[in-house]
Automatic annotation (TrEMBL):
Signal peptide: none
InterPro entries associated with the record: FAD-bd_FR_type, FNR_nucleotide-bd, Riboflavin_synthase-like_b-brl, SIP_FAD-bd, SIP_fam, SIP_rossman_dom
Coiled coil: none
Superkingdom, natural source: Bacteria
Regions that span the bilayer: none
Boundaries of every FAD-binding FR-type domain copy: 22-148
Recorded GO MF terms: oxidoreductase activity
Protein name from the UniProt record: NADPH-dependent ferric siderophore reductase
Length: 279
């Protein structure tokens, strides 16, 4: 069992401050196995992982990321190597894909990851065929951005790839929190139940026949946000990198929310495999 007490003090320090900060954890490499799978709406597949290695897993904030490591095109599995408290990925780099930690239960020794199901995706195809007993290696998380809950309001914006993180955010945030959550999905069948505080307006935006990552519905929704003078707002934004350009301008220039009070991350980019960029 890994000692988690060493990170409590730093996390408490950030939570008591005015701005968020990334808190590193010692990154791990763990072999886990599929316990069960379940569809979450029409767009997500939840896989629950178990196994002895999860006892050493770290999870403290809503949008932590891990990497699932897969065999290459020739069926060769290359794994990163532990180097102190970090991982050395080497060259050629092992094949991996990044995903949000949806749920981690120390009591149940379980880890949930929600996969966006789409044709041709390496991890999506793997998730579709995974059955109880299927094993995979998971690297991370390397740390997480800890955000104080002292903000007056919170703004969450994202497409379905950001839905697991937004859902976890809304479950864990203080119950009297105020703000907005704008989530783009294809249609009503991709909407899911979210345990959001009553003061958070959750608005589902339907993409319809548009290809993922091509519309401006999220940007239009953010343009409708009004922030009162003197209010402190934290913005969390993630999705297709191209769609974020206009949203970033609105957040920065029109809403006046700076980098210390936000996280804006390109979770994917049309036509690019394994894309991830965080501001």
């Amino acid at each position: 069992m890994t000692d988690r007490s060493g990170y409590a003090a730093r996390i408490a320090e950030v939570l008591a401050g005015e701005h968020g900060a990334k808190v590193p954890y010692p990154i791990g490499l763990r072999e886990v196995e599929v316990i069960r799978t379940a569809p979450i709406g029409a767009g997500l597949l939840r896989i629950t992982f178990g196994g002895p290695d999860i006892a050493s897993f770290h999870s403290y904030v809503p949008d932590e990321h891990v990497r699932l490591v897969f065999p290459d095109e020739y069926g060769v599995l290359r794994l990163p190597k532990l180097d102190g408290q970090s991982l050395e990925w080497g060259n050629p780099r092992p094949v991996s894909r990044e995903y949000t930690v949806r749920r981690h239960s120390v009591a149940d020794n379980e880890l949930d990851i929600d996969f966006v199901i789409h044709p041709g995706g390496l991890a999506s195809d793997w998730a579709n065929t995974a059955t109880p007993g299927t094993k995979v290696h998971i690297a991370g998380p390397p740390g997480g951005v800890v955000v104080p809950e002292s903000y007056d309001r919170f703004l969450f914006v994202g497409d379905i790839t950001a839905l697991p993180a937004i859902s976890r955010w809304l479950e864990r945030i203080r119950r009297d929190a105020q703000g907005w959550a704008f989530i783009e999905v294809a249609g009503p069948d991709e909407e899911i139940e979210i345990d959001a505080p009553a003061g958070i307006e959750v608005r589902w935006l339907h993409r319809g026949d548009l290809e993922p990552g091509t519309g401006d519905a999220l940007e239009k929704a953010v343009r409708g946000v009004e922030i009162a003078a003197g209010e402190r707002v934290y913005a969390w934004v993630a999705g297709e990198a191209g769609c974020l350009r206009g949203i970033r301008k609105v957040v920065r220039n029109e809403l006046g929310i700076g980098p210390k009070d936000s996280l804006i991350a390109g979770y994917w980019k049309r036509g690019v495999a394994d894309f991830d960029r965080e501001e």
